[in-house]
Amino acid sequence: MEVFRFRQGRSPLLVSMPHDGTHIPAELAADMTEAGLGVPDTDWHVSRLYDFLGELDASIIQATHSRYVIDLNRSPSGTALYAGQRNTELCPTTCFDDRPIYKPGREPDAPAVALRLERYWRPYHDRLAAALAELKVRHGYALLFDAHSIRSRVPRFFEGRLWDLNLGTGDGLAASPAISDAVREEAANTTNYSSVLNGRFKGGYITRAYGRPAEGVEAVQLELVQATYMDEDPPFTFREDLAAGLRPVLRRLLAAMLSAGIKRYRGAGADRKAL
């Protein structure tokens, strides 16, 4: 199976979906527990939720394999995202609820992790980097939106219920104020969903590694509470009745990001047709 799916758009926007995949190769599945094979920590139905991206002429890169194979939003060095807090590994060994992903003694060792890096992680990131470079050539800048979702309550990582819309810019390092303020203000303007910027989730490896405002690449992550568009318990059913209310909000967030990009980079060859 292909490691990712890619669609080329004509606007300056690239949407990354690194945790949308569920596929686990048979040779890896043989080592996994029933809990692991259920891939409960998937960013369920994200590509379906963002089915309007063609209207914005955005490019899309979407993972096909489960984050349990390898987490595309983690550093290849294995460095923890949040120092002093509980984190998951580059190749996770436990589910978010601490159930083991692997049978006893079957966890991936260092050579296995290195192989997965070459086979699954690097192709995704090579294409992501190339897509951003192509957008910069065409528009003079690139906008990266990393789309995620998570259960509303995950005691391992945070207390209580999470905000509905969790925006992250690496504490301001991955996006300029012009971009982050536009997205934050648009999120704050919606009355049906709570929102926060750089709260518990500040952006993962993708946001932090590729967001370089000084170099014309702006990156924003959205960690979306799954209860806003689906049932959070198995079988993780997509709720079109909920999604119908959320999609216009997400579209406005991305439109605000595009509009702010045009204003900020107008002198760098920004294309007004992007909207």
Walk me through the structure.
With 275 residues, this protein is of the alpha/beta class. The chain has one domain: Zn-dependent exopeptidases (Aminopeptidase). Helix content is 31%, strand content 14%. The protein has helices at residues 26-29, 34-37, 46-49, 110-139, 177-188, 205-210, 240-264, and strands at residues 4-7, 13-17, 59-63, 142-150, 165-168, 195-197, 217-225. β5, α5 and β6 form a beta-alpha-beta unit. The longest helix has 30 residues, at 110-139. It is globular.
In CATH, the homologous superfamily goes by the name: Zn-dependent exopeptidases
Described by its quaternary structure, the protein is single chain
Query: What topology, given as strand order, has the largest sheet?
Result: 1-3-2-4-7-5-6
CATH class: Alpha Beta
Structural class estimated from helices and strands: alpha/beta
Count of separate DSSP helical elements = 7
Largest sheet: 7 strands, mixed
Strand content: 5-15%
Regions with little confidence, pLDDT below 50 for 5+ residues: 269-275
Keywords for this structure?
7 helices, globular, seven-stranded mixed beta sheet, alpha/beta, 275 residues, disordered C terminus, Aminopeptidase
Question: What is the secondary structure topology, with strand pairs?
Answer:
Layout (H helix, E strand, L loop, with lengths): L3 E4 L5 E5 L8 H4 L4 H4 L8 H4 L9 E5 L46 H30 L2 E9 L14 E4 L8 H12 L6 E3 L7 H6 L6 E9 L14 H25 L11
Parallel strand pairs: 2-3, 2-4, 4-7, 5-6
Antiparallel strand pairs: 1-3, 5-7
Helix pairs in contact: 5-7
